[in-house]
């Protein structure tokens, strides 16, 4: 296990500080207070409460309070046990043995056993976009006793534990009976986990209410990222879909909400003058992206994708979407500049602003003016603005753009059906290693399946030597750009807003609300 952590750490160690704890203005951190209700204004309704099915930001912000996995990541992206007491790896790197913690209880009261963990791992391997990739290399999962699970691989894979414990879409553990009720690939219908908060009520389009789980069994190590101690100081956390930006801001000013997601950067100077509020800029960049349907329709033709890529000038798009330069940057790297795996390979394909070349590629592709169905949402204003600014650039090159604006939940539900769309707007969260980047996954909507790219992705999964991995990654990123797998407009740094009395909130990189509290 120590060897695996060392190899993983060498591959994905970051130079920048990866955890942002909210400012305390130079004063000692006050003692946590128990009690109170935290109301969070989200930009919309989560499409699901089944963490195996979605890696979206809204989903993760809610569900990391509700569910846990056998392992989790700390703030330096090192994998540590969570529901497992310890994990051991065989000398041939093929067999992982999870010794489970005893006394961990689900929200409905029953103790977690290896039956639950095995059933959850196998379901994650069937329905999760990362899980399907991982389980293609899984030879068997067994549970020889109530507190042991054994997972055997066909070939060594250094990032197995990082996949199982990822921030965005971990192998969350559900009760076996809940998994059985869902069938082989059906949706989860009862949302029961082992986390410090339990689901108390869900009223679609109104709120999701989590309440303290008094039976929670915390780890004893110091809290770090998604690992260690978790305290449910709050009586309840209420997530409220508030698509209207002005309502999110005004509600936080009036203390109707204590936290508001997704505040545009142009509000920063105005809001920081209010002594009751704290606007802050996240430390980890997201991509602003347009994802192509590589599987079906117009964008399955690589020349059409390359024409779309050639037509764009990313500077005006990013400036219109994010305003002042402090909130965004132009950069070709799929991994951020601060990461050891950063490369600008393929930068010649990034933001070419060449409509003449785009027209030539469309002619070679045999494009005849068919509408490009481009899905976007105003719930993330920068997504809608980016699509609106890109639209005349694309039309100047000869595209016919059918801009389809809807709520985010509709996009998430439609994007899994390749017959319904050609391009969709999204934002891509930070991932600790290139193999986790969802636009490069053939199992994630977009379905990039370039043969050479997939071969290099497989090599990247197998190798552990940092120098070898970096060389492979350079070639893979250049291939992705040359094939126009999708579009990265640029990096951006999200801004959120919270009441000054909110303490203990951590960005790591998804938001965590356990260990947070409200001062009086």
Short description:
This protein is of the alpha+beta class and 520 residues long.
Kindly describe this structure:
The protein folds into two domains: 303 residues, 3-Layer(aba) Sandwich (D-Maltodextrin-Binding Protein, domain 2); 207 residues, Roll (Dipeptide-binding Protein, domain 3), CATH 3.10.105. The protein has 15 helices and 24 strands. The radius of gyration is 23 Å and the shape is globular. The protein has a seven-stranded mixed beta sheet with strand order 9-10-11-2-12-20-13, covered by helices on one side. A six-stranded mixed beta sheet has the order 15-19-14-18-16-17, with helices on one face. The N terminus is likely disordered. A hairpin with a 5-residue loop joins strand 3 and strand 4. With 520 residues, the protein is α+β, with helices and mostly antiparallel strands. It starts with a helix and ends with a strand.
């Amino acid at each position: 296990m120590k060897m695996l952590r060392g190899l993983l750490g060498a591959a994905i160690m970051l130079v920048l500080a990866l955890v942002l704890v909210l400012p305390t203005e130079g004063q000692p951190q006050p003692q946590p207070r128990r009690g109170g209700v935290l109301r969070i204004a989200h930009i919309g309704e989560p499409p699901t409460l089944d963490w195996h099915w979605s890696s979206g930001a809204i989903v993760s912000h809610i569900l990391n309070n509700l569910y846990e996995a056998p392992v989790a990541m700390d703030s330096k992206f090192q994998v540590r046990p969570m529901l497992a007491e310890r994990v051991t790896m065989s000398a041939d790197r093929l067999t992982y043995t999870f010794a489970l913690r005893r006394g961990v209880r689900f929200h409905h009261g029953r103790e977690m056993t290896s039956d639950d963990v095995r059933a959850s791992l196998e379901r994650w391997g069937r329905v999760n976009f990362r899980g399907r990739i991982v389980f293609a290399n899984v030879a068997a999962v067994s549970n020889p006793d109530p507190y042991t699970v054994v997972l055997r691989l066909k070939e060594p894979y250094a990032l197995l534990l990082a996949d199982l414990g990822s921030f965005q879409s971990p192998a969350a553990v559900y009760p076996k009976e809940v998994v059985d009720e869902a069938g082989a690939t059906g949706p989860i219908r009862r949302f029961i986990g082992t986390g410090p908060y339990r689901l108390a009520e869900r009223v679609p389009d109104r709120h999701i209410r989590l309440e303290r789980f008094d039976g929670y069994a915390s780890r004893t190590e110091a809290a770090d990222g998604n690992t260690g101690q978790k305290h449910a100081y709050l009586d309840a956390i209420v997530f409220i879909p508030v698509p209207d930006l002005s309502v999110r801001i005004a509600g936080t000013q009036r203390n109707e909400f204590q936290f508001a997601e997704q505040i545009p950067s142009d509000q920063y100077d105005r809001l920081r003058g209010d002594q009751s509020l704290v606007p802050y800029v996240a430390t980890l960049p997201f991509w602003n992206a347009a994802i192509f349907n590589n599987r079906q329709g117009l964008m399955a033709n690589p020349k059409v994708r390359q024409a779309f890529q050639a037509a764009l000038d990313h500077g005006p798009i990013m400036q219109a979407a994010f305003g002042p330069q402090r909130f965004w940057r132009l950069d070709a790297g799929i991994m951020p500049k601060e990461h050891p795996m950063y490369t600008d390979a393929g930068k010649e394909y990034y933001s070419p602003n060449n409509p003449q070349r785009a027209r030539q590629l469309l002619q070679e592709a045999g494009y005849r003016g068919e509408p490009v169905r481009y899905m976007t949402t105003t719930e993330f204003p920068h997504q809608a603005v980016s699509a609106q600014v890109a639209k005349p650039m694309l039309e100047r090159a000869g595209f016919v753009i059918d801009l389809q604006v809807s709520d985010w939940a509709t996009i998430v539900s439609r994007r899994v059906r390749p017959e319904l769309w050609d391009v969709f707007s999204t934002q891509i969260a930070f991932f600790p290693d290139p193999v986790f980047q969802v636009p490069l996954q053939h199992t994630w909507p977009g379905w990039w399946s370039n043969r050479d790219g997939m071969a290099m992705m497989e090599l990247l999964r197998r190798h552990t030597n940092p120098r070898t991995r970096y060389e492979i990654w350079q070639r893979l990123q250049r291939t992705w750009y040359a094939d126009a797998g999708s579009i990265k407009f640029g990096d951006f740094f999200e801004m959120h807003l919270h009441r000054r009395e909110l303490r203990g909130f951590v960005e790591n990189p998804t938001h965590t609300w356990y260990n947070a509290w409200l001062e009086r």
